[in-house]
Amino acid sequence: MKRALVPGTFDPITEGHLDIVRRASQIFDEVIISIAESPDKGGHARLFTLEERVRLAKESTADLPSVRVESFGDLLVNFARRMDAKVIVKGLRAITDFEYEFQMTAMNYEIDREIETVFIMSPPKYMYLSSSIVREIARLNGPFKEFVSAPVFHALCGKYGLNEADVPAAAQSSAQRADV
Question: Which end of the chain is more exposed for a tag (fewer CB within 10 A), N or C?
Answer without folding.
Answer: C
